[in-house]
Amino acid sequence: MATNRQRKTRADGERTRRAILHEAVRLATLDGLEGLSIGNLADALGMSKSGLYAHFGSKEELQLAVIDEAGGIFRAEVIDPAIAAPPGLGQLVAVCDAFFDHLKRRTLPGGCFFAGAILEMGTRPGRVRERVSAFQADFLRLLRSFAAAALDREELPADEDPELLAFELNGIILAANARFVLSDGADGLGVARTATRRRLGLASDARAAATWDSV
Amino acid sequence: MATNRQRKTRADGERTRRAILHEAVRLATLDGLEGLSIGNLADALGMSKSGLYAHFGSKEELQLAVIDEAGGIFRAEVIDPAIAAPPGLGQLVAVCDAFFDHLKRRTLPGGCFFAGAILEMGTRPGRVRERVSAFQADFLRLLRSFAAAALDREELPADEDPELLAFELNGIILAANARFVLSDGADGLGVARTATRRRLGLASDARAAATWDSV
User: Which of residues 96-155 of A touch B (CB under 8 A)?
Assistant: First the structure.
Protein backbone atom coordinates (compact mmCIF):
# COMPACT_ATOMS: atom_id res chain seq x y z
CA MET A 1 0.00 0.00 0.00
CA ALA A 2 1.21 3.48 -0.87
CA THR A 3 1.95 5.74 2.08
CA ASN A 4 0.56 9.26 2.25
CA ARG A 5 4.01 10.55 1.39
CA GLN A 6 4.21 8.34 -1.74
CA ARG A 7 0.73 9.45 -2.85
CA LYS A 8 1.68 13.11 -2.34
CA THR A 9 4.87 12.64 -4.37
CA ARG A 10 2.93 11.06 -7.23
CA ALA A 11 0.35 13.88 -7.18
CA ASP A 12 3.15 16.48 -7.19
CA GLY A 13 4.79 14.68 -10.10
CA GLU A 14 1.54 14.69 -12.08
CA ARG A 15 1.01 18.42 -11.37
CA THR A 16 4.55 19.19 -12.55
CA ARG A 17 4.07 17.08 -15.67
CA ARG A 18 0.82 18.90 -16.55
CA ALA A 19 2.42 22.32 -15.97
CA ILE A 20 5.29 21.34 -18.28
CA LEU A 21 2.90 20.12 -20.95
CA HIS A 22 0.72 23.21 -20.81
CA GLU A 23 3.77 25.41 -21.40
CA ALA A 24 4.90 23.06 -24.18
CA VAL A 25 1.53 23.36 -25.98
CA ARG A 26 1.79 27.16 -25.75
CA LEU A 27 5.34 27.10 -27.14
CA ALA A 28 4.35 24.67 -29.91
CA THR A 29 1.76 27.16 -31.22
CA LEU A 30 4.62 29.66 -31.66
CA ASP A 31 7.59 27.47 -32.69
CA GLY A 32 5.88 24.34 -34.00
CA LEU A 33 6.06 20.76 -32.73
CA GLU A 34 9.42 20.31 -34.44
CA GLY A 35 10.69 23.58 -32.96
CA LEU A 36 9.93 22.15 -29.53
CA SER A 37 13.04 20.67 -27.97
CA ILE A 38 13.70 19.49 -24.45
CA GLY A 39 16.42 22.18 -24.35
CA ASN A 40 14.08 25.06 -25.35
CA LEU A 41 11.38 23.85 -23.01
CA ALA A 42 13.87 23.59 -20.12
CA ASP A 43 14.90 27.21 -20.80
CA ALA A 44 11.27 28.41 -20.92
CA LEU A 45 10.44 26.65 -17.62
CA GLY A 46 13.73 27.35 -15.85
CA MET A 47 14.16 23.58 -15.35
CA SER A 48 17.12 21.34 -16.01
CA LYS A 49 17.17 19.23 -19.17
CA SER A 50 17.73 16.14 -17.07
CA GLY A 51 14.59 16.97 -15.04
CA LEU A 52 12.60 17.07 -18.28
CA TYR A 53 14.14 13.84 -19.55
CA ALA A 54 12.82 12.19 -16.38
CA HIS A 55 9.27 13.09 -17.56
CA PHE A 56 9.69 12.48 -21.32
CA GLY A 57 12.26 10.04 -22.56
CA SER A 58 12.56 11.44 -26.09
CA LYS A 59 11.46 14.28 -28.32
CA GLU A 60 8.81 12.03 -29.88
CA GLU A 61 7.39 11.10 -26.46
CA LEU A 62 7.28 14.80 -25.60
CA GLN A 63 5.51 15.62 -28.89
CA LEU A 64 2.91 12.86 -28.34
CA ALA A 65 2.25 14.04 -24.78
CA VAL A 66 1.91 17.63 -26.06
CA ILE A 67 -0.68 16.54 -28.66
CA ASP A 68 -2.68 14.78 -25.93
CA GLU A 69 -2.51 17.86 -23.71
CA ALA A 70 -3.59 20.09 -26.64
CA GLY A 71 -6.44 17.64 -27.29
CA GLY A 72 -7.54 17.98 -23.67
CA ILE A 73 -7.55 21.80 -23.96
CA PHE A 74 -9.51 21.62 -27.24
CA ARG A 75 -12.04 19.21 -25.72
CA ALA A 76 -12.54 21.38 -22.65
CA GLU A 77 -12.84 24.68 -24.55
CA VAL A 78 -14.47 23.67 -27.85
CA ILE A 79 -16.02 20.19 -27.79
CA ASP A 80 -17.52 20.01 -24.27
CA PRO A 81 -19.47 23.31 -24.61
CA ALA A 82 -20.82 22.10 -27.97
CA ILE A 83 -21.93 18.73 -26.56
CA ALA A 84 -23.74 20.58 -23.77
CA ALA A 85 -25.73 22.67 -26.32
CA PRO A 86 -29.18 21.69 -27.70
CA PRO A 87 -28.74 18.76 -30.17
CA GLY A 88 -28.50 19.32 -33.91
CA LEU A 89 -28.32 22.88 -35.20
CA GLY A 90 -27.67 24.20 -31.68
CA GLN A 91 -24.53 22.05 -31.42
CA LEU A 92 -23.29 23.13 -34.87
CA VAL A 93 -23.51 26.80 -33.91
CA ALA A 94 -22.08 26.10 -30.45
CA VAL A 95 -19.00 24.20 -31.68
CA CYS A 96 -18.03 27.03 -34.05
CA ASP A 97 -18.72 29.77 -31.50
CA ALA A 98 -16.75 27.85 -28.86
CA PHE A 99 -13.82 27.65 -31.29
CA PHE A 100 -13.94 31.42 -31.91
CA ASP A 101 -14.10 31.97 -28.13
CA HIS A 102 -11.09 29.64 -27.73
CA LEU A 103 -9.12 31.92 -30.09
CA LYS A 104 -10.39 35.13 -28.49
CA ARG A 105 -9.52 33.89 -24.99
CA ARG A 106 -5.91 33.45 -26.17
CA THR A 107 -5.45 30.24 -24.26
CA LEU A 108 -2.70 29.55 -26.80
CA PRO A 109 -0.66 32.48 -28.16
CA GLY A 110 -0.32 31.12 -31.70
CA GLY A 111 -4.01 30.28 -32.25
CA CYS A 112 -5.31 26.77 -32.83
CA PHE A 113 -2.71 24.11 -31.98
CA PHE A 114 -4.17 21.55 -34.40
CA ALA A 115 -4.47 23.89 -37.42
CA GLY A 116 -0.71 24.41 -37.20
CA ALA A 117 0.16 20.81 -36.33
CA ILE A 118 -1.75 19.43 -39.36
CA LEU A 119 0.30 21.53 -41.80
CA GLU A 120 3.59 21.04 -39.95
CA MET A 121 3.38 17.29 -39.35
CA GLY A 122 1.02 16.17 -42.14
CA THR A 123 3.89 15.30 -44.49
CA ARG A 124 6.11 13.60 -41.86
CA PRO A 125 5.13 9.94 -41.55
CA GLY A 126 5.20 8.56 -38.03
CA ARG A 127 3.39 8.35 -34.71
CA VAL A 128 3.17 12.13 -34.27
CA ARG A 129 1.47 12.60 -37.64
CA GLU A 130 -0.95 9.73 -36.88
CA ARG A 131 -1.93 11.24 -33.53
CA VAL A 132 -2.62 14.67 -35.09
CA SER A 133 -4.50 13.12 -38.00
CA ALA A 134 -6.68 11.00 -35.68
CA PHE A 135 -7.66 14.08 -33.69
CA GLN A 136 -8.68 15.97 -36.83
CA ALA A 137 -10.65 12.95 -38.12
CA ASP A 138 -12.50 12.71 -34.77
CA PHE A 139 -13.35 16.41 -34.94
CA LEU A 140 -14.73 16.14 -38.48
CA ARG A 141 -16.73 13.05 -37.40
CA LEU A 142 -18.20 15.08 -34.53
CA LEU A 143 -19.22 17.88 -36.93
CA ARG A 144 -20.86 15.31 -39.24
CA SER A 145 -22.75 13.73 -36.33
CA PHE A 146 -24.09 17.15 -35.28
CA ALA A 147 -25.13 17.77 -38.90
CA ALA A 148 -26.83 14.36 -39.15
CA ALA A 149 -28.75 15.11 -35.93
CA ALA A 150 -29.81 18.51 -37.33
CA LEU A 151 -31.04 16.76 -40.50
CA ASP A 152 -32.99 14.18 -38.45
CA ARG A 153 -34.61 17.05 -36.58
CA GLU A 154 -35.43 18.76 -39.92
CA GLU A 155 -33.43 21.83 -38.91
CA LEU A 156 -31.52 21.80 -42.23
CA PRO A 157 -32.74 21.44 -45.85
CA ALA A 158 -33.39 17.78 -46.73
CA ASP A 159 -30.71 17.82 -49.48
CA GLU A 160 -27.99 19.01 -47.07
CA ASP A 161 -24.93 16.75 -46.97
CA PRO A 162 -23.31 16.24 -43.51
CA GLU A 163 -19.85 15.63 -45.01
CA LEU A 164 -20.00 18.77 -47.15
CA LEU A 165 -21.30 20.84 -44.23
CA ALA A 166 -18.57 19.51 -41.91
CA PHE A 167 -15.93 20.32 -44.54
CA GLU A 168 -17.22 23.89 -44.95
CA LEU A 169 -17.53 24.60 -41.22
CA ASN A 170 -13.99 23.31 -40.76
CA GLY A 171 -12.99 25.77 -43.50
CA ILE A 172 -14.64 28.68 -41.67
CA ILE A 173 -12.75 27.60 -38.53
CA LEU A 174 -9.42 27.46 -40.40
CA ALA A 175 -10.03 30.85 -42.07
CA ALA A 176 -10.88 32.37 -38.67
CA ASN A 177 -7.65 30.95 -37.22
CA ALA A 178 -5.53 32.30 -40.11
CA ARG A 179 -7.15 35.73 -39.72
CA PHE A 180 -6.60 35.64 -35.96
CA VAL A 181 -2.93 34.67 -36.29
CA LEU A 182 -2.18 37.32 -38.93
CA SER A 183 -4.09 40.11 -37.23
CA ASP A 184 -2.49 39.35 -33.87
CA GLY A 185 -6.05 39.04 -32.54
CA ALA A 186 -6.77 42.74 -33.17
CA ASP A 187 -9.32 41.87 -35.83
CA GLY A 188 -12.75 40.77 -34.71
CA LEU A 189 -13.94 37.25 -35.32
CA GLY A 190 -17.39 38.57 -36.25
CA VAL A 191 -16.99 37.69 -39.93
CA ALA A 192 -16.45 34.06 -38.90
CA ARG A 193 -19.55 34.08 -36.68
CA THR A 194 -21.58 35.64 -39.53
CA ALA A 195 -20.25 33.06 -42.02
CA THR A 196 -21.21 30.22 -39.65
CA ARG A 197 -24.78 31.49 -39.32
CA ARG A 198 -25.17 32.14 -43.04
CA ARG A 199 -23.98 28.60 -43.84
CA LEU A 200 -26.47 27.16 -41.35
CA GLY A 201 -29.35 29.23 -42.74
CA LEU A 202 -29.63 31.33 -39.58
CA ALA A 203 -29.00 34.76 -41.16
CA SER A 204 -31.08 35.64 -44.20
CA ASP A 205 -29.33 38.96 -44.81
CA ALA A 206 -25.59 38.46 -44.47
CA ARG A 207 -24.85 42.15 -44.89
CA ALA A 208 -27.17 43.23 -42.09
CA ALA A 209 -25.68 40.64 -39.75
CA ALA A 210 -22.11 41.56 -40.54
CA THR A 211 -21.27 43.85 -37.64
CA TRP A 212 -17.94 42.14 -37.72
CA ASP A 213 -15.31 43.84 -35.75
CA SER A 214 -17.48 44.63 -32.80
CA VAL A 215 -17.61 40.93 -31.86
CA MET B 1 29.14 47.62 -72.38
CA ALA B 2 28.79 44.05 -71.18
CA THR B 3 30.50 41.46 -73.32
CA ASN B 4 28.69 38.32 -74.45
CA ARG B 5 30.63 36.38 -71.85
CA GLN B 6 29.50 38.76 -69.05
CA ARG B 7 25.87 38.55 -70.20
CA LYS B 8 26.09 34.75 -70.28
CA THR B 9 27.55 34.67 -66.76
CA ARG B 10 24.74 36.89 -65.44
CA ALA B 11 22.08 34.71 -67.13
CA ASP B 12 23.69 31.56 -65.68
CA GLY B 13 23.74 33.19 -62.25
CA GLU B 14 20.04 34.07 -62.51
CA ARG B 15 19.18 30.51 -63.60
CA THR B 16 21.12 29.07 -60.67
CA ARG B 17 19.43 31.47 -58.27
CA ARG B 18 15.96 30.49 -59.52
CA ALA B 19 16.78 26.77 -59.30
CA ILE B 20 17.97 27.27 -55.72
CA LEU B 21 14.82 29.19 -54.82
CA HIS B 22 12.48 26.66 -56.39
CA GLU B 23 14.06 23.88 -54.31
CA ALA B 24 13.90 26.12 -51.23
CA VAL B 25 10.15 26.72 -51.71
CA ARG B 26 9.63 22.94 -52.01
CA LEU B 27 11.66 22.30 -48.84
CA ALA B 28 9.83 25.09 -46.96
CA THR B 29 6.48 23.34 -47.54
CA LEU B 30 7.95 20.31 -45.73
CA ASP B 31 10.18 21.83 -43.04
CA GLY B 32 8.78 25.36 -42.71
CA LEU B 33 10.45 28.70 -43.40
CA GLU B 34 12.23 28.51 -40.06
CA GLY B 35 13.35 24.95 -40.78
CA LEU B 36 15.02 26.26 -43.91
CA SER B 37 18.71 26.89 -43.30
CA ILE B 38 21.51 27.62 -45.73
CA GLY B 39 23.11 24.40 -44.44
CA ASN B 40 20.04 22.19 -45.16
CA LEU B 41 19.52 23.81 -48.53
CA ALA B 42 23.19 23.29 -49.45
CA ASP B 43 22.80 19.60 -48.56
CA ALA B 44 19.60 19.24 -50.62
CA LEU B 45 21.21 20.90 -53.65
CA GLY B 46 24.66 19.37 -53.28
CA MET B 47 26.14 22.89 -53.18
CA SER B 48 28.59 24.46 -50.79
CA LYS B 49 27.30 26.72 -48.04
CA SER B 50 29.65 29.46 -49.22
CA GLY B 51 28.13 29.19 -52.72
CA LEU B 52 24.68 29.78 -51.23
CA TYR B 53 25.90 32.68 -49.09
CA ALA B 54 27.03 34.34 -52.32
CA HIS B 55 23.36 34.33 -53.44
CA PHE B 56 21.67 35.12 -50.09
CA GLY B 57 23.56 36.99 -47.42
CA SER B 58 21.46 35.83 -44.48
CA LYS B 59 18.68 33.46 -43.49
CA GLU B 60 16.20 36.37 -43.56
CA GLU B 61 17.24 37.35 -47.10
CA LEU B 62 16.81 33.71 -48.14
CA GLN B 63 13.36 33.54 -46.51
CA LEU B 64 12.23 36.76 -48.25
CA ALA B 65 13.48 35.51 -51.63
CA VAL B 66 11.68 32.19 -51.01
CA ILE B 67 8.40 34.01 -50.29
CA ASP B 68 8.76 35.99 -53.54
CA GLU B 69 9.47 32.79 -55.49
CA ALA B 70 6.45 31.07 -53.86
CA GLY B 71 4.37 34.14 -54.77
CA GLY B 72 5.47 33.78 -58.39
CA ILE B 73 4.46 30.11 -58.42
CA PHE B 74 1.08 30.95 -56.85
CA ARG B 75 0.48 33.76 -59.36
CA ALA B 76 1.36 31.53 -62.32
CA GLU B 77 -0.71 28.53 -61.17
CA VAL B 78 -3.65 30.11 -59.33
CA ILE B 79 -4.07 33.83 -60.01
CA ASP B 80 -3.21 34.08 -63.73
CA PRO B 81 -5.68 31.33 -64.80
CA ALA B 82 -8.39 33.06 -62.74
CA ILE B 83 -7.72 36.48 -64.29
CA ALA B 84 -7.96 34.86 -67.74
CA ALA B 85 -11.46 33.46 -66.94
CA PRO B 86 -14.76 35.28 -67.70
CA PRO B 87 -15.17 38.21 -65.23
CA GLY B 88 -17.25 37.87 -62.08
CA LEU B 89 -18.62 34.46 -61.15
CA GLY B 90 -16.39 32.78 -63.75
CA GLN B 91 -13.30 34.17 -62.03
CA LEU B 92 -14.52 33.09 -58.59
CA VAL B 93 -14.95 29.47 -59.75
CA ALA B 94 -11.69 29.61 -61.70
CA VAL B 95 -9.54 30.86 -58.81
CA CYS B 96 -10.74 28.07 -56.52
CA ASP B 97 -10.45 25.36 -59.19
CA ALA B 98 -6.96 26.61 -60.10
CA PHE B 99 -5.99 26.33 -56.42
CA PHE B 100 -7.27 22.73 -56.25
CA ASP B 101 -5.36 21.96 -59.48
CA HIS B 102 -2.24 23.54 -57.92
CA LEU B 103 -2.53 21.04 -55.02
CA LYS B 104 -3.33 18.10 -57.28
CA ARG B 105 -0.38 18.87 -59.58
CA ARG B 106 1.91 18.55 -56.50
CA THR B 107 4.08 21.45 -57.58
CA LEU B 108 4.95 21.68 -53.89
CA PRO B 109 5.13 18.48 -51.83
CA GLY B 110 3.68 19.98 -48.63
CA GLY B 111 0.66 21.65 -50.22
CA CYS B 112 0.07 25.41 -50.24
CA PHE B 113 3.19 27.35 -49.25
CA PHE B 114 1.22 30.34 -47.93
CA ALA B 115 -1.24 28.35 -45.80
CA GLY B 116 1.75 26.99 -43.87
CA ALA B 117 3.72 30.23 -43.83
CA ILE B 118 0.80 32.21 -42.34
CA LEU B 119 0.55 29.89 -39.32
CA GLU B 120 4.32 29.49 -38.93
CA MET B 121 5.33 33.15 -39.28
CA GLY B 122 2.12 34.96 -38.25
CA THR B 123 3.26 35.33 -34.64
CA ARG B 124 6.89 36.30 -35.42
CA PRO B 125 7.08 40.06 -35.97
CA GLY B 126 9.46 41.14 -38.71
CA ARG B 127 9.96 41.50 -42.45
CA VAL B 128 9.20 37.84 -43.19
CA ARG B 129 5.84 38.01 -41.44
CA GLU B 130 4.98 41.29 -43.23
CA ARG B 131 5.79 39.80 -46.65
CA VAL B 132 3.60 36.73 -46.00
CA SER B 133 0.80 38.87 -44.58
CA ALA B 134 0.86 41.24 -47.58
CA PHE B 135 0.54 38.33 -49.98
CA GLN B 136 -2.48 36.93 -48.13
CA ALA B 137 -4.09 40.41 -47.98
CA ASP B 138 -3.60 40.81 -51.75
CA PHE B 139 -5.19 37.42 -52.37
CA LEU B 140 -8.25 38.25 -50.24
CA ARG B 141 -8.52 41.62 -52.04
CA LEU B 142 -8.50 39.78 -55.38
CA LEU B 143 -11.30 37.44 -54.20
CA ARG B 144 -13.33 40.48 -53.06
CA SER B 145 -12.83 42.21 -56.40
CA PHE B 146 -14.04 39.11 -58.29
CA ALA B 147 -17.07 38.98 -55.95
CA ALA B 148 -17.80 42.69 -56.49
CA ALA B 149 -17.67 42.17 -60.27
CA ALA B 150 -20.05 39.20 -59.96
CA LEU B 151 -22.43 41.39 -57.93
CA ASP B 152 -22.24 44.19 -60.55
CA ARG B 153 -23.09 41.62 -63.21
CA GLU B 154 -26.03 40.38 -61.07
CA GLU B 155 -24.55 36.87 -60.96
CA LEU B 156 -24.92 36.72 -57.16
CA PRO B 157 -27.87 37.60 -54.86
CA ALA B 158 -28.07 41.36 -54.24
CA ASP B 159 -27.55 40.90 -50.48
CA GLU B 160 -24.27 38.99 -50.97
CA ASP B 161 -21.30 40.52 -49.16
CA PRO B 162 -17.93 40.39 -51.02
CA GLU B 163 -15.91 40.33 -47.78
CA LEU B 164 -17.95 37.47 -46.33
CA LEU B 165 -17.77 35.54 -49.61
CA ALA B 166 -13.99 36.05 -49.87
CA PHE B 167 -13.59 34.87 -46.26
CA GLU B 168 -15.63 31.72 -46.91
CA LEU B 169 -13.91 30.82 -50.20
CA ASN B 170 -10.56 31.27 -48.46
CA GLY B 171 -11.88 28.85 -45.81
CA ILE B 172 -12.78 26.25 -48.47
CA ILE B 173 -9.25 26.66 -49.87
CA LEU B 174 -7.65 26.18 -46.44
CA ALA B 175 -9.84 23.15 -45.66
CA ALA B 176 -8.91 21.63 -49.04
CA ASN B 177 -5.23 22.19 -48.29
CA ALA B 178 -5.49 20.60 -44.80
CA ARG B 179 -7.31 17.59 -46.30
CA PHE B 180 -4.71 17.29 -49.05
CA VAL B 181 -1.78 17.43 -46.62
CA LEU B 182 -3.28 14.88 -44.21
CA SER B 183 -4.43 12.47 -46.91
CA ASP B 184 -1.08 12.63 -48.70
CA GLY B 185 -3.06 13.61 -51.79
CA ALA B 186 -4.82 10.23 -51.94
CA ASP B 187 -8.14 11.83 -51.14
CA GLY B 188 -9.98 13.58 -53.96
CA LEU B 189 -10.51 17.32 -53.88
CA GLY B 190 -14.05 16.86 -55.18
CA VAL B 191 -15.63 17.88 -51.88
CA ALA B 192 -13.82 21.23 -52.15
CA ARG B 193 -15.02 21.74 -55.73
CA THR B 194 -18.59 20.88 -54.66
CA ALA B 195 -18.38 23.27 -51.69
CA THR B 196 -17.17 26.08 -53.97
CA ARG B 197 -20.09 25.61 -56.38
CA ARG B 198 -22.65 25.32 -53.58
CA ARG B 199 -21.39 28.55 -52.01
CA LEU B 200 -21.63 30.32 -55.38
CA GLY B 201 -25.16 29.04 -56.02
CA LEU B 202 -24.04 26.83 -58.92
CA ALA B 203 -25.20 23.47 -57.48
CA SER B 204 -28.77 23.30 -56.21
CA ASP B 205 -28.47 19.72 -54.97
CA ALA B 206 -25.20 19.35 -53.10
CA ARG B 207 -25.67 15.62 -52.57
CA ALA B 208 -26.17 14.86 -56.27
CA ALA B 209 -23.10 16.89 -57.21
CA ALA B 210 -20.92 15.27 -54.57
CA THR B 211 -19.12 12.63 -56.60
CA TRP B 212 -16.14 13.63 -54.56
CA ASP B 213 -13.31 11.27 -54.76
CA SER B 214 -13.53 10.70 -58.49
CA VAL B 215 -12.32 14.25 -59.10
Answer: 109-111, 115-116, 118-120, 122-124, 133, 136
